[in-house]
From TrEMBL:
It comes from Jejudonia soesokkakensis. Keywords: Signal. It comes from the Bacteria. This is Peptidase M48 domain-containing protein. Residues 1-23 form the signal peptide. The lineage of its organism: Bacteria, Pseudomonadati, Bacteroidota, Flavobacteriia, Flavobacteriales. Gene3D superfamilies: Lipoprotein localisation LolA/LolB/LppX.
């Protein structure tokens, strides 16, 4: 059989054959990124122009993984490489199916493939699309495009099966728990024992953190943001154990417009819940109790819910005013080192009756650059609270890392009465640049 090898991938290096075109070079970098950046290894993977390999017309629009004489092969249509660019992905369907087929070889799936193999390959593909910046809508549209091809959906999985597996992979992409040693393994060779504290400052630490999160370029591409946040709070009040669960749906239309839908359930009033919507727009704060009534201005408030959201890209906001942030040095907890930054006291809410202020310390891992702890005091009238929050479970959303779990402890002093509160915050869904019905943000 006459074959034409277009490129060979060997772990650790890529072999570019002579007369490689620009599209081939980009494709080569793309495959390298898919394989290496996902923490997998592959001894050898060969790509063949399918029509030459098979000596017959190749009708499939998308790649196909095969094993021939013990060799791991991906068959490609003649023009497939021109559909993908390693720097700017626009054909998400092509990347999805390429990643799916590469996954079969990366995970050493046995042929013929089982339904479980196909679903695992789709989970991998969902993760890859997340890493490259695809949002949930683009993921779904990519699968719909593939489904229109007569040769793209295998007989073992339905479109529904595939979508479920893709979303699972997309949502759980790049899980990094900075409290677990496995994440430190990736940076263990970095020498953090000889830190020159005199050379460090707030700007350098914040830029390092932004790079760890995915890079300023990716963060700048955030136009809209959706976060579904769940808070489970427990405390004891006058000897009674109280549990409060809050569900927040946060819709960021842009960097200064936020619609927050809040549902609260308390153990003190079982079977009932309260609902309120808050809109931050044009430097004003509006509230209402249902979506069917007009917005009411909350007078006198200077609350900026955008910059104080616990899971927005706060490092990007801090960088804008880094000259006001103090670098306090390096501290060690549980055998790990952290850069410590301190912000000045800031007014976060003020009206005619009271003012709320906060002063915070941020602890960034020396190894990973990721935010691990925040320690802050909050004052509102005669009430003072001391808070400590731990950030866990960093995952990639469109190539940007977010903490999907935070654990907070608070000690609140209310005129001599002390209340201890624990709060666990999780994020079932975070989406970057989703489609919003912009009428939600209209003030009647």
């Amino acid at each position: 059989m006459k074959t034409q090898v277009l490129l060979t991938f060997i772990t650790g290096s890529l072999l570019i054959i002579s007369n490689t075109t620009y599209a081939q070079e980009n494709f080569q970098r793309l495959v390298d990124k898919i394989i290496v950046s996902n923490g997998t290894s592959l001894n050898e993977l060969n790509f063949y122009q399918a029509s030459s390999f098979m000596e017959m017309p190749y009708e499939k629009e998308y790649p196909e993984a095969v094993v021939y004489n013990g060799e791991k092969i991906l068959l490609l249509a003649e023009d497939f490489k021109t559909r993908l660019d390693s720097y700017l992905i626009t054909d998400w369907a092509a990347l999805l199916q390429l990643s799916h087929e590469v996954a079969h070889h990366l995970k050493n799936h046995e042929f013929p493939l089982s339904k479980q193999h196909e679903m695992k390959a789709d989970e991998f593909a969902g993760k890859v699309l997340n890493d490259f910046g695809a949002n949930r809508k683009q993921l779904t549209e990519a699968l719909e495009t593939i489904a229109e091809s007569n040769h793209a959906i295998n007989s073992k999985t339905t479109v529904t099966d595939r979508l479920e597996s893709l979303i699972n992979g997309w949502q759980s992409a790049s899980v990094i728990d900075i409290g677990v040693s496995v994440s430190e393994e990736n940076v263990r060779d970095r020498d953090d024992t000889n830190i020159d504290e005199d050379e460090m400052n707030a700007e350098k630490i914040l830029r390092k953190s932004l790079e760890a999160l995915g890079g300023v370029d990716k963060i700048k591409r955030i136009d809209k943001l959706y976060q579904h946040q769940k808070n489970e709070m427990k405390m004891k009040v006058s000897g009674t154990d109280v549990a409060v669960t809050t569900s927040l749906e946060m819709h960021y239309l842009d960097s200064s417009t936020l619609l927050n839908k809040i549902t609260t359930v308390s153990s003190l009033t079982p079977g009932t819940s309260t609902y309120v919507e808050t809109l931050v727009k044009d430097e004003k704060v509006y509230t209402r109790t249902t979506s069917n009534v007009p917005w009411v201005v909350a007078p006198g408030q200077t609350m900026n819910m955008i910059s104080n959201s616990s899971n927005y890209i706060q490092e990007y906001k801090l960088l804008e005013k880094a000259y006001t942030v103090n670098y306090l040095g390096v501290e060690e907890f549980n055998g790990k080192k952290y850069y410590v930054l301190e912000t000045p006291e800031e007014t976060i809410m003020e009206n005619t009756q009271s003012k709320t202020t906060e002063k915070k310390k941020y602890y960034y891992s020396v190894n990973t650059g990721l935010l691990t702890y925040v320690d802050w005091d909050s004052k509102m009238g005669g009430m003072v609270s001391k808070n400590w929050i731990h950030y866990f479970d960093y995952r990639s959303v469109s190539g940007i890392l977010y903490s999907f779990r935070q654990e907070m402890t608070s000690t609140i002093d209310m005129s001599g009465t002390e209340v201890n509160v624990t709060t666990i915050t999780t994020y079932p869904v975070i989406e970057i640049n989703p489609d919003f019905d912009e009428t939600m943000f209209k003030v009647n």
